[in-house]
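> example.struct
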């Protein structure tokens, strides 16, 4: 698993997100209540934004001159999956060298102190973690094969 390196040719703010060579998805546990699901997606987006700042397009200026921070030019689909499918998706994505994977174990939403989260994570084997969400960024065809026909989060 690595952060995909994007060339200038890969960053195309003049094309539809469906034409982008890169695909970014966030898959959330469909059993989460709305507030927890949105929190998980926002946390995934923050982690991806830090690792891949080139995913953000340039700032925009509106007709009144107000500046609006750049948004992801490749878009980001928020999908839903059950706990077992989410665990399987995470495992498959982790095996791929050309995909960037961010995950959110359940401990992330039950710990209010980050160091406690890290301690809990360190004491739990990967196969024993319950995932609330995963984010995958990589070549469109490879990400699409992994996610299959997962539905949009509703």
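> example.seq
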């Amino acid at each position: 698993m690595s952060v995909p390196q994007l060339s200038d040719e890969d960053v195309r703010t003049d094309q539809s997100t469906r034409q982008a060579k890169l695909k970014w998805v966030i898959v959330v546990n469909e059993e989460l209540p709305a507030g927890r699901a949105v929190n998980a997606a926002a946390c995934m987006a923050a982690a991806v934004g830090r690792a891949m700042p080139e995913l953000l397009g340039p700032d925009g200026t509106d007709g009144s001159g107000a500046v609006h921070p750049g948004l992801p030019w490749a878009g980001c689909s928020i999908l839903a999956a059950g706990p077992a499918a989410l665990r399987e998706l995470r495992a498959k994505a982790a095996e791929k060298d050309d995909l960037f994977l961010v995950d959110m174990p359940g401990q992330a939403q039950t710990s209010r102190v980050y160091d406690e989260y890290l301690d809990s994570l360190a004491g739990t084997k990967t196969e024993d973690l319950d995932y609330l969400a995963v984010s995958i960024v990589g070549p469109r065809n490879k990400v699409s094969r992994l996610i299959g026909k997962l539905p949009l989060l509703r």
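> remarks
The radius of gyration is 16 Å.
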